[in-house]
Amino acid sequence: MRWLLGLLVVLGWALAQFKSEYKLSVVVAPNTPWGMGAQRFADLVREKTEGKINIKVYYSGQLFAGQQTNEFQLLRSGVADFAIGSTINWSPQVKELNLFNLPFFFPSYKELDAVKEGQAGRMIFQRLRQLGAEPLAWGENGYRQLTNSKRPVRTPEDLAGLKIRVVGAPIFIDTFRALGANPTSLNFSETLTALQQGVVDGQENPIVGVIIPYKLWELGQRYLTVWNYVIDPLIFAASVQTWRSFPAEVQKAIQEAALEAARYQTALARAGMDDGTSARYLASLGVKVEIPEPIAYLRNQGVQVTVLSPLEIGRFRDRVAGVVQRWMNEIGGTLVVQAEADKKRAR
Ligand code: X2X
Known about the structure:
By secondary structure, the chain is of the alpha/beta class.
């Protein structure tokens, strides 16, 4: 019986028609944890499918010509077979993903992980399936920190009037307006020049995920505020059309590859920013962390780093209470209540 099953599997693989290339979209460059996770996923898929599935990573938003909030549309229409997408960029089409955009909603990795791995995470994956994307694993861009070229920011008053680039998801405009800043939404591809030319004063992005690989201090971003105000998970996903075209064995191999690559990717994004768990995990894989102490490293580059205390964070949180309330309604009560319950279990 077993040999017959084996034969059928081999026959199935032989008969299945695979494309010579499957396209995977990411927003950032190959030298970021996000980009490295994408390459690892492609490599693992090739390995686990014995070369049948060949994924090519399109970095720096090449597939969507700069408009990063269109990425989910590309995925569901099958223009991109796969994407590793930021929950921010997909949130205009998947309103539930605004859960992760709520300012100061995830104070710790533990609480975030409990939500992703709990019932709330499953509800979100279910929603993605309804919308035409097959979610495979959670990755991470990281906690988003504020940088600017003008002055240290420790209080909401310090932020007043600063022109801050945000992603084109509406909640970010609401948040930064409530904080007294002057937000403007730009695609990431335009952000680097806008910073360099002083068209905007500041931006917000993860330290390990973006600030260090893109050397933002060289574009004049000399002040950094560490406030962990928003966490930015990534989702490894396939287009439903592409997913359905694969036999079960291939789906299984790709699913395994996604989980393995996502774990590696998340550890790269957290290395030096958590309690040491991620660096230890990477060491167990034989991966050397290039910058073990990211904040010390930035200080060495001449960046003035302001790490906010819980009390100082509280002043910012008070300013955005109305925004959080409004967007919780938008996201939907059931999911928010479930996320609160998942978070509570982690504490
Ligand atoms: O555009 C950004 O800031 C980035 C790279 O972090 C995202 O894609 C959300």
